[in-house]
Amino acid sequence: MAGIVPSRRVRGTPFLALVEAAGAKAFTVYNRMLLASYYESYEADYKHLKEHVQIWDVAVQRQISIKGPDALRLMRQISPRDMDRMAEDQCYYMPVCDHNGGMLNDPVAIKIAEDHYWLSIADGDLLQWVLGLAVGQGFDVEIDEPDVSPLAVQGPKADELMARVFGDIVRDIKFFRYKQLPFMDTKFVIARSGWSKQGGFEIYVEGGHYGLPLGNILLERGRDLNVRIGCPNLIERIEGGLLSYGSDIRRDNSPVEAGLSRFCNSPAEYIGKKEIERQKLNGPNRQIRPLEIDGADDLPHNESGWDLTAGSRKVGLIASSAWSPDFETNVAIGMVDKSHWHPGTRLEVHNKHGICGATVRESFWI
Amino acid sequence: MAGIVPSRRVRGTPFLALVEAAGAKAFTVYNRMLLASYYESYEADYKHLKEHVQIWDVAVQRQISIKGPDALRLMRQISPRDMDRMAEDQCYYMPVCDHNGGMLNDPVAIKIAEDHYWLSIADGDLLQWVLGLAVGQGFDVEIDEPDVSPLAVQGPKADELMARVFGDIVRDIKFFRYKQLPFMDTKFVIARSGWSKQGGFEIYVEGGHYGLPLGNILLERGRDLNVRIGCPNLIERIEGGLLSYGSDIRRDNSPVEAGLSRFCNSPAEYIGKKEIERQKLNGPNRQIRPLEIDGADDLPHNESGWDLTAGSRKVGLIASSAWSPDFETNVAIGMVDKSHWHPGTRLEVHNKHGICGATVRESFWI
To answer: Are residues B302 and B366 in the same domain?
Structure first.
């Protein structure tokens, strides 16, 4: 595992002291920030996440603020989802695509006000896409990256922990909705969302100096809940079919290939619509599929994607894979050609240990 | 130093086997790729670079290809340099700015043909800016990231080594000009450029599979020149005043603040021109300056920028600093307010070891 040299360019987060104190053992770099990959181990973190509650430094999910008279007009252009039906407290997971339907990012859009949206982004400078569109067309909007750093509270005990800090009102927050709730001398957007299937919240911490006080009070109030500092977990997110932009899906994939057609329903002439509608009608030529890889807990770490073949023919790629202790199998996410994507199809996986078998599944595990 | 977990998202380069075999001891992540920070040590690498010749994996300098009937029209919009005076074999270092003159990147533009340019980018998805402008205005251009990975050959013996592999014709390549020269069954754009002041070339390796054969032949032919695999060197680039986008300069800086006014001479109505021209006329409020920090070779690594103060007043920030063995001082690059930027001004530097003195210099060291 290569060591990484910190610099002003590869930034820390407002929660870094908590992450270091909790003993993160490995990191990735995401939006030019350090993001922990695991603490005790992928498996120990996973078991804990499914049973208790974790606090995740997901400040790497940077916000793009789009504000001004033309904010909605710009959102209608970039969003395959119907912006005009977005409630005032709603969050939209959405693929953002180029003119050919190629995915540029898959942010969560948050409606702050009628003329103000945040995009909580995956890895990539989506700000530059939005800015280019706005400047190129002379739109009247301000686009910048505010000092907002999400902290996620995830796991079955998340409601209880959040209620202890923000009050029982958090229990009323619906899925992908938010409330603005007070903390110290400020208030935070708090949404029921997060990159796990265990339930929980994302707190959009506006003002980096609130990061440590908030983290510390969550740790303190959650002691008897066995709260821990954690991070998005590779195994759990594969089981749940949560896609990683840059790994599972890229600009050479459409949202239809990514299995995200249900989020492409806007009546507006959004960018990429023509190709997306064509693929929705005719079906894509390849698509994201869950796969089970043969063997025990002895596969190498998936460093750069593994080819999927059917005999001598390449029919796909697995970008994410891990041993699942709960399902006692190797869970994986692959992009598989139409010819071989039917559930039950047997394929070969090529990794640095050699070749092994895999089976296309009907659905993800959780 | 945190360990980094590889994934498909944080990519390797076509030269990774060479980098690993040469024993890179630390990395950074740049454009979602691993970039070595040093091999033996910053100082040993530095001494070698100034005396011999090094081969650098700078595949992280991804190319944005802009091709089509509207390519020049788009380049005129994004470039503060006069695109109409660019020779057919020329490379332009250029700041690329938003509508307020804020720097979005500082690529090297390469004119491949009248209707085809590459932008060899610093860290950041400048592709999305260019794509947003093009799509927003309906320009007839294709914008993508081709399979091109630069390999730099840097150091005083670079001409000799390159001549042994590509022929004496490389000696005729002028500064920031290129020739297309044959290699195996293909040809590469080879420019006299690179992120050091020791002279040398950048080979734009088109086709990842040529990476290892090229690296190996350079190593083989350069054995008696004491060639080594290396990487951009922190000390040497600070001595030479080579700026790191994301560390020394960011979107909240104009090219005038970055000391790059001489590259802002386009007669066209490029994006950001109004503010840049205003700052060129009136002078900026702060600007990049070389600084010498007091003390011996005992400063901590500069992890996130150090505040510069004059008494109780913050007057700047040092994002890059290192001990220079040749100049026997701590060399640094800072952004300093106009009130305190004059050569000889004494300031205080705040780092995790405490406070020490620094002096603003007239010019960089080399």
So the answer is: yes
Q: Does residue A254 sit within a domain?
A: no
State the ipTM, two decimals: 0.97
DSSP assignment letter at B259: T
Q: Verify whether the Cβ–Cβ distance A7 to B302 is below 8 Å.
A: yes
Contact between chains at A125 and B123 (C-beta distance less than 8 A) = no
CA distance B359 to B297: 16
pLDDT tens-place string over residues A75-127: 999 999 999 999 999 999 999 999 999 999 999 999 999 999 999 999 999 99
Contact call for residues B126 and B107 (beta carbons, < 8 A): yes
Q: Dihedral through CA B283, CA B286, CA B292, CA B298, nearest 10?
A: -160
Is the same domain home to A100 and A57? Answer: no
Q: Which of A165, A161, A191 is nearest to A179 (CA)?
A: A191
How far apart are alpha carbons B306 and B356 in whole angstroms?
Answer: 11
The predicted-structure confidence for B193-228, as pLDDT tens digits, reads as follows: 999 999 999 999 999 999 999 999 999 999 999 999
A42 contact partners, CB below 8 Å, separation of at least 6: A233, A234, A235, A322
Give the nearest partner residue to B133 out of A11, A124, A132, using CB atoms.
A132
Please enumerate in sequence order all residues whose Cβ is within 8 A of that of B293, keeping only pairs 6 or more positions apart, or say none.
B299, B318, B321, B329, B330, B331, B332, B349, B356, B357, B358
Q: Give the DSSP per-residue string, B262-273.
A: GG---SS--TTH
**Between residues 252 and 271 of chain B, which touch chain A (CB distance below 8 Å)?**
271
Task: Give A-chain residues touching B320 at CB under 8 angstroms.
Answer: 8
Nearest to A365 by CA among A298, A310, A289: A289
C-alpha distances out from residue B198 to A170, B159, B320, Å:
60, 11, 19
Q: Which two tokens stand for residue B310?
A: 């004059």
CB environment B174-186: b (16+ within 10 A), e (fewer): eebbbbebebeee
Note the pTM of the prediction, 2 decimals: 0.97
Q: What is the mean pLDDT of each run of 10 residues along chain B (366 residues)?
A: 86 94 96 97 98 98 98 98 98 98 98 98 98 98 98 98 98 98 98 98 98 98 98 98 98 98 98 98 98 95 96 97 98 98 98 96 96
- Whether B270 maps to a domain, the answer reads no
Residue B289 falls inside a structural domain: yes
CATH code at A343? 2.40.30.110
Domain tally for chain A?
3
Report the pLDDT value the prediction gives residue B11, as an integer from 0 to 100: 87
Last residue of a domain, one of A144, A160, A191: A144
Contacts of B128 in chain A (CB under 8 A): 104, 124-129, 132
In terms of domains, do B211 and B230 share one?
yes
CATH classification of the domain holding A172: 3.30.1360.120
Separation between Cα atoms, residue A350 and residue A353, nearest integer Å: 8
Minimal Cβ distance to B247: which of A8, A130, A246 = A8
Range of the domain at A324: 286-366
